[in-house]
Write a structure and sequence with these properties.
The protein is α/β, with parallel strands linked by helices and 517 residues long. The chain has four domains: 37 residues; 177 residues, 3-Layer(aba) Sandwich (Rossmann fold), CATH 3.40.50; 71 residues, Helicase, Ruva Protein, domain 3 (Orthogonal Bundle); 211 residues, Methane Monooxygenase Hydroxylase, Chain G, domain 1 (Up-down Bundle). It contains 19 helices and nine strands. It has a six-stranded mixed β-sheet, sandwiched between helices. Strands 8-7-9 form a three-stranded antiparallel β-sheet. α9 crosses α11 and α17 packs antiparallel against α18. The chain is globular, with a radius of gyration of 32 Å. The structure holds adenosine-5'-triphosphate and magnesium ion. Adenosine-5'-triphosphate binds next to α4, α9 and α11.
C-alpha cells in the first residue's frame, strides 16, 4: 500500500516536470509545420530575353511615363556616363493612375529594355499573418537585388503595404512598411539599385514613402487621349487581320475615357466576333459589336411584350430627341431597343472630342437628356415605369455633385459641402436637399417642354425604332434633318422661365388615345 503511494507521488513529480516540456515541444512542432505550409514567395527574377518580352513599342499613349523610364534604363545601361557628370541614379519611381492604364506593362517594358537584373514582387505577398514575415521578405528581396546590382526592383500594387501607418491594429503592416522605408534609404550609397512601384491610390500612401530620396519621382499614368487610343488600338490589332475599310480613327474617337485595358479588350472581342461569324478578317461591324458589348453588355435573350417594346422605344426616343436638340450634349451615336445586359434599350452618346471641363449649362442639359426618357413615358402613356431607375440615379448623383462639389447651386455657391462633414448644420443639409430638388425639377420642366414641343420628331424616332430596333448616327441625322426641313426655322431652346404654352394639354389629350391603343 505504501509502495503504491510512493510510486503515485513519483508519477506526479514526473508529470509536473515533463508534461509541460512535452506540451511545449508539441507546440513547437505544430508551429514549424504551419510555417512550412506558408506560401514560399521568392522574389521573381525576370530575364530580359524571356519569351513574352514586352518592349517600349507595346505600351502606347503613355509617352510621358515612357520618357521618364527610358532615362532610368539609359542610366543603368551606362552608369559611368552619368557618374562622370556627378549625377546620381534616381532612386524610386512611383507609377500611379487608374486601373488598366498600363503601369505593370511599363514595368515589364523596363525589365526587357534595360540590361540590369530585374526583380519583381507584388506587395500583397508581403502581407502575412505572422508578425515580421513581411519585413523579412522585403529584406530578402533587397538583399538579392543588391547582390546583383545594377538592378531594378519592381513592387506592384504598393497600396497593399504602403497605406498610412497607424491604421493596422496588429502592427504587422506597419512593420513591413517600416522595413521598406529603411531599405529604400539604403546605406552604402552609390549602389545602382532603382525601385519602381505601381499603385492606384496615391493619396492613401504613407507620406514617408513619397518624400524626396524615396519615391521622389511620381509619374501619373493617365487614361489615353485620342492619339494615344489610336496608338493602343494599333498595338493591339498588330497580329489581327483587319478588313481594308476599317478606320481605327473612328474607333478611337468612340472610346473616349476608356483605358488601355478596355481597348485591348475591345480589340480581342472584335476578333472573337469575327471568328464566331466565320470571317477571315475583322470588320468594322465586329468593332462596333465589341464596343457595344464592352459599353452596354452582351445582347440578352429576354422576351418582352409588345407594349413593353413600345414603352422602351418611346423612352429611348425621348433621350435621343433631347440629345439632338441640345447643342452642348454629346451626339447620339446609336439608339437601340435590343435588350442588352440589364438594360432593355439604350441610347449611346459619344463625345466628338476629349473634354476635361464641363459648364453648368452642359450639366443641366445632360440632366434634361437623362430625364427625357421618363418624361416621354409619362406624356405618351400617362404612366411611369421602373425603366428609368438608372437615369434617375444618375440625375441624383449629378445634381448632388452640382450642389455639393461644384458650387453650382443658387444659394450655395463658392464652397464645397462634403457629404460626410459632421459639422454641417441641419439647416445646411436641408438647403442642399432643396437646391438639389430645384435643379432636378428645373431639368424635368425643361425636358417636358422639349418633348411636348417636338412631338412629331419624337414620333418619327419611335416609329423608326419600332421598325428597325437600332438607329445609327446617319439615320438619326436624317430624321432630324427631315423634321427641321418641315419646321423651319429650327425650334430653338425655349427660355427657362414661363410655362403654359398649351403644349402639355395637347399631350394630355393624345395621351388618352395612346393609352387606349
Ligand atoms: N498604354 C497601353 N498600351 C498598350 N496596351 C495597354 C496600355 N495600357 C493597358 N494596356 C493593356 O491592358 C493590359 C493591362 O494593363 P496593366 O496590367 O499594365 O494595367 P495596370 O495599370 O497595371 O492596372 P492595375 O492598376 O489594375 O494593376 C495590358 O496587358 C495591355 O494589354
Ligand atoms: Mg498593375
Amino acid at each position: 500500500m505504501s509502495e503504491l503511494a510512493v510510486s503515485w507521488y513519483q508519477v506526479q513529480d514526473w508529470a509536473v516536470i515533463w508534461l509541460p516540456i512535452i506540451f511545449m515541444g508539441l507546440i513547437a512542432v505544430v508551429l514549424v509545420y504551419t510555417l512550412r505550409l506558408m506560401p514560399r514567395t521568392k522574389p521573381q527574377e525576370i530575364k530580359p530575353e524571356s519569351s513574352d518580352s514586352i518592349g517600349w513599342s507595346d505600351g502606347a499613349g503613355v509617352e510621358e511615363a515612357k520618357d521618364e523610364l527610358r532615362e532610368v534604363v539609359e542610366f543603368l545601361r551606362d552608369p559611368e556616363r552619368f557618374r562622370k557628370l556627378g549625377a546620381k541614379v534616381p532612386k524610386g519611381i512611383l507609377l500611379h493612375g487608374p486601373p488598366g492604364t498600363g503601369k505593370t506593362l511599363l514595368a515589364k517594358a523596363v525589365a526587357h529594355e534595360s540590361n540590369a537584373k530585374f526583380y519583381a514582387q507584388s506587395a500583397s505577398s508581403f502581407v502575412e499573418m505572422f508578425a515580421g514575415l513581411g519585413a523579412s521578405r522585403i529584406r530578402r528581396l533587397f538583399r538579392e537585388a543588391r547582390k546583383a546590382a545594377p538592378a531594378i526592383v519592381f513592387i506592384d500594387e504598393l497600396d497593399a503595404v504602403g497605406a498610412t501607418r497607424g491604421a493596422d491594429i496588429s502592427g504587422e503592416k506597419d512593420q513591413t512598411l517600416n522595413q521598406l522605408l529603411v531599405e529604400l534609404d539604403g546605406f552604402g550609397g552609390g549602389e545602382d539599385l532603382v525601385v519602381i512601384a505601381a499603385s492606384n491610390l496615391l493619396d492613401k500612401l504613407d507620406p514617408a514613402l513619397l518624400r524626396p530620396g524615396r519615391f521622389d519621382r511620381q509619374i501619373f499614368v493617365s487614361p489615353p487621349d485620342f492619339e494615344g487610343r489610336k496608338h493602343i488600338l494599333g498595338v493591339h490589332t498588330r497580329g489581327k487581320p483587319l478588313a481594308t475599310d476599317i478606320d481605327l480613327d473612328v474607333v478611337a474617337r468612340q472610346t473616349s475615357g476608356l483605358t488601355g485595358a478596355d481597348l485591348a479588350n475591345i480589340c480581342n472581342e472584335a476578333a472573337i466576333f469575327a471568328g464566331r461569324a466565320h470571317r477571315n478578317v475583322v470588320q468594322t461591324v465586329d468593332f462596333q459589336a465589341a464596343l457595344e458589348r464592352v459599353v452596354a453588355g452582351m445582347q440578352s435573350r429576354r422576351v418582352i411584350t409588345d407594349h413593353e417594346r413600345r414603352v422602351v422605344a418611346y423612352h429611348e426616343a425621348g433621350h435621343a430627341l433631347c440629345s439632338q436638340l441640345l447643342p452642348s450634349v454629346e451626339k447620339v451615336h446609336r439608339i437601340s431597343i435590343v435588350p442588352r445586359g440589364q438594360a432593355l434599350g439604350y441610347t449611346l452618346n459619344l463625345p466628338e472630342e476629349d473634354r476635361y471641363l464641363k459648364t453648368q449649362e452642359e450639366l443641366m442639359d445632360y440632366l434634361v437628356v437623362l430625364l427625357g426618357g421618363r418624361v416621354t413615358e409619362s406624356l405618351i402613356f400617362g404612366q411611369i415605369t421602373t425603366g428609368a431607375s438608372d437615369d434617375l440615379r444618375k440625375v441624383h448623383e449629378i445634381s448632388r455633385s452640382m450642389v455639393t462639389d461644384y458650387g453650382m447651386a443658387t444659394n450655395l455657391q463658392s464652397k464645397q459641402l462634403p457629404a460626410s462633414d459632421y459639422s454641417m448644420a441641419d439647416a445646411t443639409r436641408r438647403l442642399i436637399d432643396e437646391e438639389q430638388q430645384h435643379i432636378a425639377d428645373e431639368a424635368y420642366r425643361r425636358a417636358t417642354r422639349m418633348v411636348a414641343g417636338h412631338r412629331p420628331l419624337l414620333e418619327a424616332f419611335a416609329a423608326r425604332l419600332l421598325e428597325s430596333e437600332v438607329l445609327e448616327r446617319a439615320d438619326i441625322e436624317r430624321i432630324t434633318a427631315e423634321y427641321e426641313g418641315e419646321f423651319v426655322p429650327r425650334l430653338r431652346l425655349e427660355p427657362l422661365a414661363g410655362t403654359g404654352n398649351g403644349r402639355p394639354k395637347v399631350a394630355a389629350s393624345e395621351r388618352h388615345e395612346a393609352g387606349s391603343a
